[in-house]
């Protein structure tokens, strides 16, 4: 029998700093909920909106796989490895913080907000050499199907991370149903609805709801409306 945990959109941590409005699915910064520390190796899922021209100054990270998924606008990245890049809707960015890195993130535009998901995954090894990568995806490849965006192998579709994890994005029309089979034994799946109405097995989800499911190897995903969503399969072990 599978196990599940439901995180409704309006139960997330809410941090509004003026220039930054962040919704936290898991404990982060000043939001602390002992019931929401992580889901397996998924440590952070932040739903961020950054005001025009504002951003995060240079700050350090280590021993974390950090994935950014832009949803709207242009986010400028700079880091201590010399990378300077702009990521937009359709791009996926990954940073293996490893033995230590500094980076900054700013809204490149002075006239509109930038929205993105910032996701942290615990790595499967410590103090790796830091690395940065980004790719541009064809959004048509997620229409009514699952588009892989993260995997453990550099040769696979999407970006790769130091963890036995797979992420997919999808854009389903109402009525589309697929079965998702887990890639690895012992993994769990965290589903995050970007917009629309979705059903995972018999559990309904709506915009910005999250559902973790584990101790199973397959789920049925059904779109009850035109729906965009993110699947994150991660190991459940500590």
How are the SSEs ordered, and which strands pair?
Elements: E1 3-7, E2 13-16, E3 20-24, E4 42-50, E5 55-61, E6 65-72, E7 74-79, E8 84-88, E9 91-96, E10 101-107, E11 114-121, E12 131-136, E13 146-151, E14 159-160, E15 166-172, E16 177-181, E17 187-195, E18 198-200, E19 203-205, E20 210-214, E21 218-223, E22 227-235
Parallel strand pairs: 13-14
Antiparallel strand pairs: 1-20, 2-3, 3-4, 4-11, 5-10, 6-9, 6-11, 7-8, 7-10, 9-12, 13-15, 15-22, 16-21, 17-20, 17-22, 18-19, 18-21
Could you walk me through the main structural features you see in this protein, from its secondary elements to its overall organization?
- By secondary structure, the protein is mainly beta.
- It has two domains: 13-136, Jelly Rolls; 139-235, Jelly Rolls, CATH 2.60.120.
- It has strands spanning 3-7, 13-16, 20-24, 42-50, 55-61, 65-72, 74-79, 84-88, 91-96, 101-107, 114-121, 131-136, 146-151, 159-160, 166-172, 177-181, 187-195, 198-200, 203-205, 210-214, 218-223, 227-235.
- It has a seven-stranded mixed sheet with strand order 1-20-17-22-15-13-14, with no helix packed on it. A seven-stranded antiparallel sheet has the order 2-3-4-11-6-9-12, with no helix packed on it.
């Amino acid at each position: 029998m599978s196990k599940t945990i439901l995180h409704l959109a309006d139960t997330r941590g809410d941090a509004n700093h003026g220039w930054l409005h962040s919704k936290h699915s898991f404990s982060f910064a000043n939001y602390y909920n002992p019931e929401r520390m992580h889901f397996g190796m998924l440590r952070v899922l932040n739903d961020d909106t950054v005001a025009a021209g504002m951003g995060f100054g240079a700050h350090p990270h280590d021993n974390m796989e950090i994935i950014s998924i832009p949803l709207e606008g242009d986010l400028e990245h700079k880091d201590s490895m010399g990378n300077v890049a702009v990521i937009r809707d359709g791009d996926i960015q990954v940073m293996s913080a490893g033995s230590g890195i500094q980076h900054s993130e700013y809204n490149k535009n002075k006239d509109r907000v930038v929205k993105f998901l910032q996701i942290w995954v615990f790595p499967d090894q410590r103090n790796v050499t830091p690395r940065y990568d980004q790719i541009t995806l064809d959004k048509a490849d997620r229409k009514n199907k699952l588009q892989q965006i993260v995997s453990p192998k550099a040769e696979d579709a999407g970006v790769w991370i130091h963890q036995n994890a797979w992420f997919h994005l999808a854009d389903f029309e109402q009525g589309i149903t697929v079965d998702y089979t887990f890639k690895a034994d012992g993994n769990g799946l965290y589903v995050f609805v970007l917009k629309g109405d979705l059903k995972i097995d018999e559990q309904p989800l709506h915009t910005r709801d999250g559902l973790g499911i584990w101790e199973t190897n397959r789920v049925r995903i059904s779109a009850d409306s035109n729906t965009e969503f993110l699947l994150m399969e991660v190991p459940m072990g500590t």
